[in-house]
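[job 4417] fold queue: 2 targets
>>> target A
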Amino acid sequence: MLQQTWDVIVIGGGHAGIEAARAASAAGDLRVCLITMDPSKIGEMSCNPAIGGLAKGQMVREIDALGGIMPLAADRSGIMFRMLNTSRGAAVRGPRCQNDKHAYAAHAQVLLAGCDVTVIAGTIDDICVNKGRVVGVRLPAGAGVVQARTVDVASFADTMPDRPFAGAVEDRLSEPCTLQGGAVVLTTGTFMRALMHTGEQQVAGGRVGEGVAAGIAGCLLGLGLELTRFKTGTPPRLSRASLDWDSLPEQFGDESPVRFSDRTAAASFPMLPQVCCRVTNTTAEAHALIRDNLHRAPMYAGAMTAVCGPRYCPSIEDKVVRFADRDQHHVFLEPESLHTDEVYCNGISTSLPPEVQIEIVRSMPGCERAQIIRPGYAVEYDLVQPCQLDATTMVKSIEGLFLAGQINGTSGYEEAAGQGLLAGLNAARRVRGDAPVRLGRDEAYIGVMLDDLVTRMPEEPYRMFTSRAEHRMRLRADNADERLTAIGRDWGLIDDEQWDQYRAQTEAIAALHQRFQTTKGEGGRVLAQLCRRPEMQLASVMAQLGGGDDPLLVERVMNDCRYAGYLVRQQAEIKRQREADGVSIPASLDPNAISGLRSEARDVLGRMRPATLGQASRLAGINPADVTVLRVALDRMPKPGRPEGTSASVEAG
C-alpha cells in the first residue's frame, strides 16, 4: 500500500528534482518521495545532451563538492570532454562534456536508486496549504510506486543502457488521496501549462511524446503567486548516416580530459568510448529562406503568448533577424549517443515548419542529403516570478513550499540541479527544525544565481555566466571542494568516503603549497613567486618539482599563487557584503512606515521583500542612501537574533 505520510515530497524527475531528492535524503533520516509523470524519464536530457560549459561547469563542480548526482552521472556517460576558454585565466575556464543521453539518464537513475528515496509514478492535482503552510499534495487515482531494477552499468559501452525506473508500477491508487508532507519541492521544468509549436502546429506538452502539468498553475495562482510565461526551443535531430560526416571539420575532445567529480576514479575515466563532433554552417541561401518564412514561425506569427526566450541561445530565426549582416552561423553536429543515429544540430534551434527545416538543413555543407529524425520545436510554459522566493528557494508567502529549476525562470540542466540541491537541503532542514541556509555570492555560483533570481525581475530565461560573478576569481572550477565540501559535511550532504577523500586531497595540496614556498627556480625565486608570471607553464613547474606529482593538483596550486594578490584585495569588499547579508529584514517590516525612504524605494522593497540588507542593496531602484535609511530603521527595531537564512560561511561557523 502506498505510504501516505512523508517528510519531504519532491515533484518532478528532472535535474532539479533528482538533486532535491538526493539532498533531502542525505541531509537527515527522513521519509522522502519523488513524484513524476514517467519515472523512466528521470534524468532525461531534453535538449542538448551536454553538461557544463562556461560558468555552468563551475556549478557542476560545486554540486560535486556538495555530494550531488549530476557530476558523477556526467563523468560516467561522457563521450567527449573539453575544457573551454583555455586561452584565458583559470577563473573563467569551464569544463564541458558531450554525453550519451541514454547513459546519462540511466546513471542518474542508478545513483538516485542508491538513495533512500521512493519514486512514485503520477501527477499531482493540488498542493495542500493550511494557514500559509504546506501540509501535503493531492494525488489522482492511478498513481503508484516504481521499484528500481538492477542494471548492468558495465554494459553501457556496448549496448543501449537500461534504466532502473523503467519497471512496472505497483500499489496503484484506486481513488485519489492526499499525501501528507512537511515540505514540498516543486520542480515542474517546462511542463506547467506547456504548449509546443512547430510551424502552425500546436501540441500540449513540455517535451515530445509527454504530457503537461495543467493543474499546478491554477493551484499556484490560487495560492496568490504571480506567474509569467517564457519560451525555449530545440533544434532538429539528424540521422548521422544521411550526412557526409567525414567531409566536415572535426572537433575533438581533450587528450587528457578533466573529471567533473573528484569521486570519479581516475583509473576508470573516461568510462565510455570517446567521439568527435563535426562543424558546419548555415548559408545565405538558408537565411533568405528563413526571412521568407518568418510569418510561419510561431513567435513572429503571433502564435506564442510567451515572447521572452533565451537571449544567449537564440533560435536561428532570431539570429537571422538580429544579425542581418551575417550570411552564416556556425552549427555544431554533436552525436547524442553511442547506440543511436541521432545528431544534435547545435546552433539552429527553430520552430519553423518541418518542410522549411529540411531545406535549411540541406543547405548546410555536408548535410545535402540529410534526413531529419525529429524536427525542432519551441515550447512555452509557465513559471513563478522568482522575486516571490527567498534565496533558500522557499516561497516567502507559503512556509514549506520550495521551487527549483525552470519554474523559477532559469534555463539549463546545471542551473536546475544547483537550485534543486539547495531546495532539497532546505526542505529537509525545515522538517528537522534546523535553520535554512543560503550560499553567498562569494562562496558559489549557485549563490550568485539564487541571489540574482530573487533580486531581479527576469526578462528572459536566466543563464549563468562568469560575468555575473563579481568574485569569480574565488569561484574557480578547480577549487569548488575547498569552498564547499566542509560546509556540505556540516549540512549532512557528504558521506564518509567523500569526506576522507577530500581530507587526503586537502593535505596533499597543503604539502604542495609548502613546496612552492621552498622550491627555487629561475633567478633564485621560489615557485610561488614564479607562478605569478603568465608565461610560466605547468610542464616547467612539474619539472622543477622533480616529477611524480598529480598535474591537476600542481596546476591548482599554481592558480592559487597567481590569484593570491587579487583575492587579498577583495577581502574587504567580501567582508562588507557578508555583513550586509547577515542583517535580516523581518517580514513584518513596512517600508511605507520608514521615514526618509524614497517612494520608489518603498515600492521596490514592498514588491520584492528582500530577506537581508545585502539583498536590498542589490535591488534595481535602491540606491546607497536608501540602504543607509533602511539600516537605521532596522537598527531601531528590536533585535530579532540570527537571520532566518544565513550564508554558508556564517551557518557553518
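>>> target B
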Amino acid sequence: MTNNDQVKTLTGIAIDQKQNKNNEEAKAFAEELAREFLSVADQFKLGSLPTESPHPMTTSLSKDAKENLPKAIQTIKDIDLGVFKQLQMYLPLLMDLQKDVAQTLESGGRIFLCGCGATGRLSLALETIWRIKYEGHPKASLLQDRLVSFMAGGDVALIHSVEKFEDFPEFGERQLRELHFQEGDLLISCTEGGETPFVIGATEAALNISKRAPYFLYCNPDDVLKKTAERSKRVIENSRIKKINLTVGPMALTGSTRMQATTILMYAAGLCLWYYDQNFKEIEAELSRIINYVEKTDFNFLAPFIERESLLYEKGQYLFYETDGLLGISILTDTTERSPTFSLYPFENQLSEHKHPSLSYLLFTKSEDSQSAWNDLLKRAPRTFHWKEVTDQTSQERLIGFDFSRQLMELRPRYLQASHAHFKIELNEETNTLHFELDGLVRALNLDGLNFLSAHLVLKILLNNLSTVIMGRMGRYESNLMTWVRASNNKLVDRACRYVDTLLKQKGIVVSYEELVRECFRIKDQIPRDQSLVLTMVKEFDR
C-alpha cells in the first residue's frame, strides 16, 4: 500500500464516520480496508515482542481484581518497582543523552520530544513538568520555550486519539517541520515498541535537518525488533541515530504499554532533562530515592478508592477527576488512556451530541473556560493544525470543545441529568504531599523529598494501578489479556486478531489470520464502542 493509498484510507475512515452507508457499501468498504491491511500486515505482526507478551506474574489479575484486591494491587506495584530497578542497570546509557541535552541548550538550541499515543502523552507531560520547573526562574524566558513536545495528531490527541494517525511516517516528518525544527535542535523520540511509523518518520527526518543526531528510545530487544519490522531494523542499523534500548519485558496487562514501558521511557528522558546542568550522580541519587520510596510505601491504600469508584460506575453514576495544572497532565493521561485500552467511551466533546458520555471527566475548578483550562494544563497555548487529510480532527475548534473548566460542573450534570462524585487529587507543594479524596475517603501521601518529576512518576504508577484494577473488577479484561482493546490502528488490529486467535484455540477452533482480519474489519465499526471487539469476534467464530 502506497503512502497516498494510506492517506486515502485515513480520510475515508474520517468521512465514513459522518456518512450513513447501506449494508452493501459498508461491507465493501470494510473488505477494501481489510485487503489494504493484509497487504502490509507482516510489518504489524508484533506478537513476538516482549512488550506484547503476557506477564507471568499477572495470569490471575482479572480474578484477583474481583476477589483479592490487595494481591492485585501488590502484584502491579511489584512489577512497577522492577521497572525502576531495571532503569538503574541502564543508567550508563543515559550519560550521553544528558550531555547532549546540556550542549544543545547551552548553545541556544531546542529539545524536541516526540511520541504517539502513550509515548506522545509522556512527551507532553515532560514539557509541562519542565515549564512548571522553570516558572518564576530567573532564566524562565530563556528556558521554558526551549523544550517542545509533539505527538501524533497534535495536542487534541492528548485527550482523544486520532485514529490511524500513528501509521503514517510522513505525518511525523510533517509535524516536526511545521514546528520549525532547525539545524541546532535535538530530537528525542520515544516509542515503547520501537516500531511506530510516525515516530520513525520524525526521527529519520531529523537526520536531514539538524547537525545533532536524534535519539531513539524504545523497550524491545534489537534482535527481535529487526526480525519483526523492517522499519525498526532500518533505525537500529543506522549509525547516525543514537539508540537507547530500555527493554523492560511484558506489561502487567498484556500489551498495555501505557504502563511499564511508558514509565521507564518517561523517567529516563525526564531525569536527563531535569538534571541536564548537574552532575550525573544527581540522577543516580533521585532514582535511588524513588526506588526506596516505592519499596516502603503501602499501595493498598488504593483499595477503598478502587472499591468506591467501581461501585459508582456499577450504579450508573459519573465521576469528576478534580485537580489543577500541577498534576492535571498525569491525571488526564491515565483517564484518557482508559478509552482505547478498555473500550470505554472517550471524553465527549461539548460541540457534539452527548449520546455516549465517558464514565469520568477531568475537571479544573480554577479555570474559567476551556481555553484557560488548556493553557493551565499545558502551561502554554495548545498546538493544533488543520490538514485536509484528517478533516477537522486535529483542529483548534475541536480541541476547545473538550472543555474541562469549571463550566463543566454545571454543563455535564445538566445534559446527563445525573450527579457526579468528585475524586480530588492535589499536590501540596509546601509539604510535598499528594492528597486523595473521594466520597469521604481521604489519604495524604508524603513524597519524602522526591522532586516534582518523581512526584508525577509516583502518581502515574498509582493511577495505572487504580484504573487497571477497576477495569478488572468491571470485567474489561480476562486473565491479563486486553480483551476490550479498540482496533484503531494497524498495530491494534493485529493485537485484537491475536487475542481472538488465542481464545479460539483454547476452544479448539482454528481460524486463519486472513479470516480473522476480514472479520475484524467487518464488525469493528459496526458494534458499539463500549462492546468488546475481541469477545464479539470469538462468538462469531464459535457459533
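[job 4417] complete. Note on B: Strands lie at 111-115, 147-151, 186-191, 215-218, 242-245, 318-323, 360-364, 420-428, 433-438, 441-446.
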